[in-house]
Every structure is written in C-alpha cells, then in structure tokens.
Specification:
The structure holds 2 protein chains of 2 kinds. Chain A is an alpha/beta fold. In chain A, about 25% of the residues lie in helices and about 25% in strands. In chain A, helix 1 packs antiparallel against helix 4. Classes of the chains: A alpha/beta, B alpha+beta. Chains A and B meet through helix 6 and helix 8 of A and helix 5 and helix 6 of B.
Amino acid sequence: MRTKQEYLIRYKDGNLYCELADIWIDPSKPVKKALITHAHFDHFTFGCEEYISTKETAILLKERVGDNIKIKTFEYGEEFKINGINISFHPSGHILGSSQIRFIFAEEKWLISGDFKLQNDETCKQYEIVKTDYLISECTFGLPIFKWDESNKIANDISKWITNSPEKTSLLFCYSLGKAQRLLNEISQTNFKGNIYSHSSIHKMNNSYKKLGIDIQDTIKIENKKKIDELKGSLILLPPSLSKGSYLKNFKNIQTAFASGWMSIRALRKRSGYDKGFAISDHADWDGILKVVKISEAKNVFFHHGDSEALRKYLVEKKSINVLLFGK
Amino acid sequence: MSLKKFSELFGDLDSINSTNNKIEVLKRYFLSNEPIDNSWAIYLLTGKSNKRFISGRYLKNLFSQIYEYPQWLIDTCYLKVGDSAEVITLLLKNKTISRDKKLSNISLNELLSETIPALSKLNEEEKNLEIKNLWETLPEDNHLIFNKILTGTFRVGVSIGLITKSISKLINVDEGIISHRLMGNFEPSINSYKFLVNKNINLQELNSKPFPFLLANTIEDKIFKDSINDFQFEWKYDGIRMQLIKRSGNVSLWTRGQELVNESFPELVEKMSQITDDFVLDGELLVWNFKEQIAFDFSLLQKRINRKSPTKSIQIKYPIIFIAYDLLEINGRDIREIKLENRRIELEKYFSKWQIKTENNISDIFKICDLIFPKNWPDALTFKEKSRENNTEGLIIKKKTSIYSSGRKKGIWWKYKVDPMQLDAVLIYAKGGSGRRAGLYTDYSFALWKDKELIKFASAYSGLTNIEIKELDKWIRKNTIEKFGPVRSLKPEMVFEISFEKIQISKRHKSGIAVRFPRITKWRKDKKINDADSLENAYELMKKIS
C-alpha cells in the first residue's frame, strides 16, 4: 500500500490536490490552476490564476462573478493533458454544467464525483457512469434515512401547498442556481397555473439557463413595491439568505417553505423556522452513493463533504470495499 | 376518517405555525369525518392515549432483524433524527413498495380499536410477523403515525386548548364548556363525540366556569415610594395557580391554563364538597410538608399533575394542600368588585366557619394564605431574601384597595422574586438532544474547580438562544476529546454562568452538592476557565443561604 503522499490525488490544506499536475479541484483559496466541478460558490474562490471547467460552468460563473476571470473550457468527455495526466469532465447531474472529473495516469484511473445526483433532472445532463480504480465521492447525505422521493411527487406537493391556501402568498426558499430552475421546470408540469415570481438572483440564473438552451418557465422578477393583492395565490422563489431579517416584511399573509434534502427530518424541519419543508435535493441520497460506489467498480473509495463515518463503516463491513481516509 | 386522512391532518398540523390556521384545519376535518373517527382523532391529538404497545428499542431491533441492518447504523441515524418511530419510518421508505397496500383505507377506528390492541395478545414471534405485515400493507405515508402510535410517542403541536377552541368555534359554544366536556376519561366513541359537539348546554355545565385570573406584574421601583401600609404581603408559592369553584354543590378545580384537573386531585374535591356554602376561591395547589408547614419542591407536585385518579398510596406519599389567596364569589354573590382588604375579611370569616362546621377536618388539605407584615420596605426585602427557607419564590405584593379585575393589570399586584443563585462553570461534556433538538449537541454538563481538577456539578439544557446553540454545536464538534456513544468530552475552554434555585448537600454526586433548576444564563466568552468558580465557592453559597 502506498503512503498518502504517493496518491495521485490527495488532501492538502483541506482541498483536493494533484501534485503531479500541480492542479487543485474546487479550491477554497487562490491557487495557480483550479479545476471547477460546478458554479456553486462553495466550490469556487476568487483570485486563481487560471480556472478550467465545462463550457456551461464557465458561462454560469461569469454571469455570477463577472468576466474578469481567466477560464479555459472543455466539452464533456473531451480529454486534455496536463503533465502527462489525461483529464476529462463527465456529467454529474447536480446542476447545469456540473461535472465529475476523471484523471488517468499510468493506466490508473481516478474519479472525483463532484456534487452529484442520479435522479432525473430535465435542467441538466444526466449523471454518466464512469468506471474508475479510485473514487473520491461527496457524502453530503451519507445516512440511510435519506431517500429521495421522485421530484414530480415533490412538485405536486408544492403545487397542492400553494393552491390549498389561495388567500396566501407562498414563499418558497431554494438555492438560486440549480435548485430554483429544477423546481421551476417541475412545477410548470403540475396543476399549479398561477403566477410565479422570482428574486433577482434567481431571475438572473433563469436567464442564463435559457441562454444555454434549457427550457425554463418564465417568471416575473419580484419588485419590492408589488401590491399585496396581486401576489395572493402566487408562488415566489427566494434565496434562503432572505428568510431571516426584514425582507419578509415586504409581504403580507405569507406561508413559507424551504426546499432542501435536510427537510426530510422532522426535527430539522421544525428547527428551520419555515412553515413547511420539501425534501428535494441535488445531491445523491444513501442509495445513490452506494450505487455509484458499485457501478464505478472502484476498489478504493475516499469520501469528502459531510459526515462519512457511518457510510465508511457500512461499506467496509457489509460490502468489503476498501474505504480510505484522507490525511489532512 | 381513514388513517390516511388522519396522517394528512397530522402533516398539516405539523407544518402550520399559526394557531388560527390550525383551528381552521381541525374544524374542516371534524366536519368532514365520521363521529367515531373524530373521537379517535381527538383522543390521539389531546394525548389521552400514550400507551406504549412496543418500545422504540424493540421496534429498532425488529427492523434490524427483518431488513438485515446493523444495529449501530440505526443508532447513528437515531442521533440525527431523535425519534425511534421516525427513524424506522425513514428507513422503511421504498422497502415495502412492491407489496399490495390492502390496508390503504383502514379507518382510524379499526386500527386503534382492533388491529393494534390485537398485537398484545400475540406471542413474540407472531407479533413480529404481524408488525412486518402491517408495515408492508399500510401505505408508506401512514408509517409515521402507525409507528408513533405503536411506541406511544404520538405528539403534535396541538394542545388540549387548541382542540377546545376548535370544537368551541365549530359549534359556537363557549370554550369553558367544551373544556369541561373534554375533561376526564374521554373514551373514544360515537356518543362521546356527540356529547362534545352538543349545542345544548345544561345548567351544570354553565356553573363550572372559572373567572379570568388576575396576574401579578414584576416589581417596579416606584412602589417603594408608597406607604407600606397600603399593601398586603403574601409568600409567592411555586405550585399550580388555581380557582377552586363550588357551585350548586359541584366542585371544579381550574388551572390558569383553563384545564379542569378534578381527576388529579380527588381528595381535594371530596373534602371541599362537604362545605355547605357555594364559593369561588383563587389560590395555589402545592404538595405540602405538614410537619414543617412548608411546600415541597415543585418536582413532587409534578408527580401528581399528570396522574389521573391517583391511588391512595400516591395521595399519602405526595400530600396536597390548597392555599386560598382570595375569595371571589360567595353563595352566588360575585364580590370581585369589592376591595381586597374586605375580601380578605370575608375569606377569613368563612374559613373559620368552614373549619368548625365541616364534619371532617378540612385544614389537612385546605388553608388560607398567611399574610406577612413587614414594618417598612427594607424589612420587606429581608422577608424576600428569607423566602428560600420556606421554599417560596419571593413575595406577592397586593394593593389593599385592588378589585379583582382580569389579566396582568398594571399597578395593583406585583411579584417580588428572590434572585437566583449563580456560579460560573466550565463546559466539560455535551450530549445530543432529542426531538426537536436532534442532531445538535444541546445537553451540557458543567464543572467547578476542586484544586486543579474540574468536577462536574450540574447539567443544563436551557438558556441558550438557537443561534448560540448552533454556534456552540460547531465548537463542540471541533473540540471533542473523546466520544462515548452520544456523549462527547470536551476541551475545557468555555465558561458559562449557571443560575439555579436551590443548593444542597448530595452524597450521590461526586461534587457533593446538588442544585435545582440549573440553567444557563450567560455565555461568559469574556472569561477564561481559570476565572470559573470552585466547589468551595459553592459550599460558601450554601452556608450563606442556610
């Protein structure tokens, strides 16, 4: 067995790093060269000399942070070489442009799952099965209590939630990029036919999705001075950051909900302070992670993001999979 | 109502925060369902049934056995979820999907009056098989309710008061009446529901209603300028505030929370029924130390509150007393509008009459409150400081001219509470919370110095804000020394101000002391662990008080 230093990809200063290529994956601090799996802000930091990502991720990033970054793009599946290592992006099904990243060096394959989900999502490319020797997987929801319902079921629940209270304005909080567009796509296929408003941060992302050829239902950009009566019975999408504080005072007679995988647990739902929680996630659930571990045919697995203790123990005990620990 | 409908009701109630909306939802359900199922729903929602058919542990073991899940994995999940019934529900998801859901329309009545009671007649093997079968044939949406009823943990954010309000609105009858009807052994049946929603009120029902309670305000400095002779002084007891009503021969005990508690205190009802006069008394119910003539701790009273029809031995073990503060009505005459000092004269007059006239001595369960007579305000302060000695919380100060109006009326009654005792202690252990606090470290243990060692002296759960809890939770995860199951020992670094009500010697604790009602009153981020108090400080505090 090799020492931690000898792995092709390892943990360095809390980030994934490939020394041979001198390249970082989703680094949290400025570096020379950074591979970016997707355009969420917890996977991106300012100040890197060069970014490399898929075309879609690059466009979304520029929409969010401006044109002032140097970013090189590749198509899904297109291989490029850095210091003799073959690198390629593959769809991870998390949000538009999101990717898994595969490294091949000296016939050894490494796969970084990025954030991923297996569930169907019409707003991004479906997760692609990629075989590997080493798998580095996310583990946000690494307990068997997390099992997602089909997203159309959740969308129907949301539709019912709105239409059951026609006198109210329904505020649905969700992440601006990815979750909001997925919800819009699903909700447009339900019985709810009322107006949908979205906060400017969400509205901007909707437009980016449309520019990238994704069919997203039109929404009205929310203005603070909207008349209360006009909003009655309609749905408003807002980013979670606005759920606390004075922003809500712009509305009267509201009901609130949060769309997140964590909402499957009653205690978390109650504690969140929202009236209702819809358990829909862009991450893999327990079965999803197990399935990817299996179909990737990885002999060695690492986990990062989230509490992986239970998952690790389960794989070692029940599935005899070699689960390794990163040296911090 | 099918179990399915009831599951939906539970889901709705669980996700509505506004009381008015909850009432609307309840009204709608009562209107659209059968009386028998409504009566079961009320039975469950009011917590009348918390019979445990099967323990949470048993259910988890059974699940582990059937679906070949390692026990430790279920336990890990439990730490996140905080409720056995819910853990099993989440784990069951998608496991039983292929089976025929032939029980999709089972009624609440059938489930509760037949299916579940039948389980207890089976031997272990049959019982396990039957539970498995029920899991597989009940629709997934109903698993949570089913598991919760099985484990006797069905609870939802609905108080008996809310049910009372809903029924009251549904049939347009006063809440007090409904409250009265809901009291006691509410047995689910068509008749019990019909009785509950009967629009005709009989006279006896009307007679049992209490007056709105008059409450005391926190002390204001300005009263110290007034003459001490303008006020009546009483001890502030830590019991259950109550109105004791006897009208047309019937006694009813009403708490401030509009709950009728006759059944918890039958000996009081029986004794008071012997009095020939009718009356309404305002007072406090306590578990009483007759030898020393002081109240026992509130914790003993708790052993009586939730117990309906207590046995004789319970009644002897936890002897109660009703201490009357005030007389509000006598033989049908409402005297709330006369001055307190005159009401007190009436109270004393009638009390001595009743003492002589009743066949059995009533003073072993009923007395009127003693008054205190401080000479001046500093003297009143001295009385207040002494209140710990007789297990009271301080003083109640009432204007002698006050009439008995309602609510927290300003400028007539005050409470003058004794300050809590406090020590600064070091956080050394944390344990995961359950229920709403699952997945967070919310149960804390604190230590005091003994030479160079930190000795645990108290555990506390309350006092931090939600934001502080989250912040501390993060810190705990980063500063764990060791894990023992759900408990983590922590790097001694954080100092908290712990307040408590009472301190006494205890041989059971390593520290040698026990405190009552410990709670966190401040996160002393300004203090280092060396600034925390020592056990010696605690002993001194104890000496000072006794």
